[in-house]
Amino acid sequence: MTDKIYNTLFICTGNSARSIMAEVVLNHLGKDRFRGYSAGSHPRGEIHPLTLQVLGDKGYAIDGLRSKSWEEFARPDAPRMDFIFTVCDRAAGELCPTWPGQPITAHWGFADPVAVSGDPARQLKTFTNTQFLIANRIRTFLSLPLASIDRLSLQNQLRQMGQERAE
After folding, report:
1. 0.70 exceeded by the pTM?
2. Contact (CB, 8 A) for 16 and 42
3. What are the structural domains, with CATH classification, of the chain?
4. Which of 3, 33, 49, 50 has a 20 to 30 A CA-CA distance from 129?
5. What confidence tier does 94 reach under pLDDT thresholds 50, 70, 90?
C-alpha cells in the first residue's frame, strides 16, 4: 500500500453545484488517500444554496467552500493534480489550461441541477439525486487498484466510467 495522496480536480462551468459536490464527497470518502478540489471555467462566484443544503444534510463538511476559477490550479504554485475530471457537458468541450505533471483526465458528465426551475421540492430532489450519482461514481473510482494498474488501463477505465449513464 502506498502513502501517496492523490490530488483530484473536478471542473464544471460555474463551480456552484456538481464540481463542489464531487470535491466534498471525494474529500469525505477518500479520507487520507485523496484530496479533492473543484473549479469552474466561468465560476459563478458563489455556491448554489441547494448544493450546500444537500451536502450539509448528508453530513459532509461544507465550511470553507468557495466558487473559484480553474486558473488557480494552472499556476506554477498550485497543487500538482493526479486526476482531473470534468463533470458537466459544457466544460468537456472547452479549451482547458495546460496542467503540469500530465494528470489523468476523464469526462464524467452529470445533468445540471441548477438548470431545474419551478417547484422547490423538485429542485431539492434534483440536487439530492445529482449528489447521489456523483457519490456513486466516486465510490467506483475509489475502488480501483490505483497502485497496481498501469496508467493507460487506468485512463481507459476512468473514461469508460464517464460513458456510463448517470441515472
Report:
1. yes
2. no
3. 6-163 (3.40.50.2300)
4. 33
5. low
